[in-house]
Specification:
11 helices, about 375 residues, alpha+beta, 8-stranded antiparallel beta sheet
């Protein structure tokens, strides 16, 4: 019981709590995996109750800590629903007092919940056909993300619903974007729907001209303009205040070979992706972990694990396969080596997609779309 060992290693500062401290140490030292006795559970519950009484009667911080750790220990020998209730009580009653205790409690709750009703493969009306990308029912704690959730892609629906970019400073408003930029600003855009085609190009245009194109009715005879993978939030710093960088980007994660963090001071690169419906980012890999947030509109995501590279017909980090069409007669190994493992989902406003480094991914805008990627 690793959690029991961690608790024991940090109980010394609870000594001012006197005899109850010694009772807690003695109870935790019992190996519940070997001796899951009712007496142990009752003793831990009694310690929690007495700590609660003392917590209400005195301002000594040690009682908050003791209540927290006793609740954690009690949860470890309880049934799943009782354990969750006890861990929540530790947050509510004592504020999860103690270094690292809140992350530990949230991690334990999530682990217990997954034994009751797993959070994986939750279908929602947003999901596209095919293998779904995992949708988590709640944001994982930083501890849970660092220990296990970073290993696979996942979606958090409506994660950013409270961002100013989706509320009072909406990025859906081109008038707001014009006001932030001011007159005369220019931005780099891609001309064309897919950078693998011969008619694709890049150029600098006035930001106002680009926004006017977004506001206008699409013209089938005119190639679309797409502001892609651009540090727009660095160019227009006011936009940075409209988002919140998730704590996940500061996690200390094991990195695959060749996947060093960005070389800037923050070890973080924030890019904007803004364009009309129909624009595509072909399947490719990036050497960074990525939290990708859909701010405006809807975007379909296709993903496949790194082991599928042999069937991607890649040049460098970019695939030659159009993953958004149903048949691939020119790429037979794609169907045999990749399709079985490929995953799809559609992101809506506020949805966060986490992508591990090295995973294949492609994007297709289903409407006017504004997204933010955060490489770390």
């Amino acid at each position: 019981m690793a959690c029991r060992v961690n608790l024991l290693s940090s109980l010394h500062d609870l000594a001012p709590c006197g005899p109850l401290y010694h009772r807690l140490v003695a109870a935790i030292q019992q190996d519940a995996a070997v001796n899951p006795s009712q007496e142990l559970a009752q003793e831990l519950d009694a310690i929690v109750a007495e700590a609660h009484t003392n917590l209400a009667a005195t301002s000594l911080r040690c009682w908050r800590r003791l209540y927290t750790d006793a609740s954690i220990a009690s949860a470890l020998v309880s049934t799943p629903l009782d354990a969750i209730a006890k861990l929540d009580a530790a947050i509510i009653v004592s504020g999860a007092a103690g270094e690292g205790r809140l992350d530990l409690i949230l991690d334990l709750i999530q682990r217990i919940q997954q034994t009751i009703s797993p959070f994986v493969d939750v279908k929602t009306p947003h999901d596209s056909e095919g293998n779904p990308i995992t949708v988590l029912a709640a944001p994982p704690s930083l501890a849970a993300f660092q220990s296990r959730e970073h290993k696979h892609p996942f979606i958090l629906r409506a994660y950013a619903h409270h961002w100013p970019a989706l509320t009072d400073r909406s990025w859906a408003s081109t008038d707001y974007l014009r006001a932030v930029a001011g007159p005369g600003r220019v931005v780099p855009v891609e001309v064309g729907r897919d950078y693998r085609t011969d008619d694709w190009s890049q150029k600098l245009v006035l930001f106002d001209t680009f926004l006017a194109a977004l506001d206008s009715t699409p013209d089938a005879e005119q190639p679309p303009l797409y502001l892609a993978q651009h540090s727009l939030l660095m160019q227009f710093p006011a936009l940075r205040a409209d988002i919140e960088v998730p704590d996940y980007v500061y996690a200390d994660l094991p990195r695959p070979p060749g996947c060093a963090p960005p070389a800037n001071d923050e070890q973080l690169v924030i890019n904007a992706w803004l364009g009309p419906g129909g624009t595509i980012s072909p399947a490719h890999t990036d050497p960074y972990f990525n939290t990708y947030v859909q701010v405006v509109g809807r975007k379909t995501v296709w993903m496949a694990p790194p082991r599928c590279g042999a069937g991607m017909y890649a040049t460098g980090n970019t695939s030659g396969v159009d993953v958004f069409v149903a048949e691939h007669p020119e790429h037979p190994e794609f169907d045999s080596l990749v399709e079985e493992f490929a995953m799809r989902a559609t992101l809506g406003p506020g949805d966060l997609l986490y992508m591990p480094a090295g995973w294949w991914h492609a994007m297709r805008a289903e409407s006017r779309s504004f997204s933010v990627s955060m490489w770390f």
